[in-house]
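Pasting as-is:
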Amino acid sequence: MTMRRPPLLASLRSLLAAALLALPLAAPAEDGPEATAAAPEELVLGLSQNRVAITANFDGSEILIFGAVKRDAPAQPVEAQVIVTVAGPTEPVSVQRKERRAGIWVNADQVIIRQAPSFYAVATSAPLAEILSATEDLRHRISIPRAIRSITSGDEVTDEDAFVEALVRIRQQAGLYQMREETVGFDQQTLFRTSVPLPSSLPTGVYSVDVYLVRNGTVVSTHETAIRVGKVGLEQWLYALSREQGVLYALLAIVIAILAGWGASEIFRLLRNQ
């Protein structure tokens, strides 16, 4: 047996459901500063060059990074800061610790870092520890130690951080890792600019340039672009030959060595006969 609801009761229930669904849409907006969402801030970035050419006489270069903060409303009362990072291609690195045994130095413990940037520079508008929280640093991997990851080692190694510190120290001395605090000019909370020197031993590949807008220790906006670093001319031809035709490259190197030796001997012979 089927029970039928009275038509009037069914109509009232339908009207009540429709009113409950429409209630949030009809609620008036709250007044006051807390009800207004913060205006979005967008980073606009420019580079002095988007390609670095490495030639036979390449002795280093410099890249100028500049940009602006685009806003739809006036800047917030809390001042923002800018962080710029330039990262080269990641590569695996083996770090070994030497120990003196039986009067000679031998390789002992070893740590393999599977992802380490071949080049990494950090430029900031203020001291990094003062403008970026540890949580945000861990999230975005901005500082030099955080950019190095995927570390594997044997059970006998209990101080992996010491190996990371050694890698950072060695590459800092070579100019491949740079910490450039307070080198970003930030004018009127809108325009920013900085420069990053590139050493002569710069590895080739695609480099990522990231800009972070930071407020109250938190990253509120980011922008990323890329530059390409590559060999050109004879350097590029020899590099490609060594990678693609290893046997031919080895034969060419032998021929060049023979010709250089023969040429040097002929020059010395002529000098003795004079």
